[in-house]
């Protein structure tokens, strides 16, 4: 079996192979709302596994994204996608070979971090990925959607206007780009995605209403993409992109006040969001689903730790095991005034952990003490977990809405 890079000439073969791995057929532009999810592929970053007879039996791709880290630090990352193995060649080492080659290619490009969305939660830990952001789906019955009178003064002095998706492509791109640069865990949406209408609404041209929020100066600083579906008249919000909580609240009020709707479903809301507390009926806001979203894999531990922003001072010795790549390192992390230094050390460790667990705590969405309590991370001192929690804490919950 050969693992080789693809070129533009391999697009049809690659697309057919990845669809076959999942038992599906490629849709047409009409079926997808005018854009194909794979139309933003970077073929020079894709890999195909080929048998000696020339049969493609496995695929793995990557996009060139930027990831926002705590402290509003933006770094290049590989966004892994289109990973699949033909049913006839599973459990023969094809996937491991693809993952090993892909990680080598990511390192060669100088990217310290790789990310993905996992189709199954049991697959990617063995390759060093850990779930780093989570997202919730919330629903509110329209008849229970009244907002309570706020006991604190409102900070929003903006307005909301209604547009159609076809009218505001550039506006959506600009608002999302400003949002993702300040939101830890968010990924960039390169212009080629919007131009090709790749991915999911509102990137695609599928019909959507867009509620656009403008600040007091008329500058767009948020939007909600939604549609009302038959037969039950449920209003489904694809995503709410907002500069702050006040903008989110204004957009939520707008969609929750929609007439002739039985229920409003928000598909992507960060954990701990205050929406339920803003309603007169606390129980009206129901959790319909909660799932992991962005998985993170560190390929250069010292560089990744030194790059993100920090909000507490301290020291921590991390003994990090990377069994898939056969690597192990002990690192002294020192943080002063929001800046970190991470160097090799022979000091006794505070925490011993797998690289996948480090990926889970890296963005601040999962406290290290949670993984200590779960038995995944070993704390060598009684105060080690608490010190790690204080160090990895972030001021904003990491969240990602981008699908790839």
Automatic annotation (TrEMBL):
It comes from the Bacteria. The active site is at residues 124, 404. InterPro entries: Acetyltransf_17 (IPR041380), Acetyltransferase_Eis (IPR051554), Acyl_CoA_acyltransferase (IPR016181), Eis_dom (IPR025559), GNAT_dom (IPR000182), NAcTrfase_Eis (IPR022902), SCP2_sterol-bd_dom_sf (IPR036527). Residues 1-156 form the N-acetyltransferase domain. It holds the Pfam family SCP2_2. Signal peptide: none annotated. Acetyl-CoA binds at residues 83-85, 91-96, 119-120. Keywords: Acyltransferase, Transferase. Homohexamer; trimer of dimers. Belongs to the acetyltransferase Eis family. This is GNAT family N-acetyltransferase. It comes from Amycolatopsis nalaikhensis. The lineage of its organism: Bacteria, Bacillati, Actinomycetota, Actinomycetes, Pseudonocardiales.
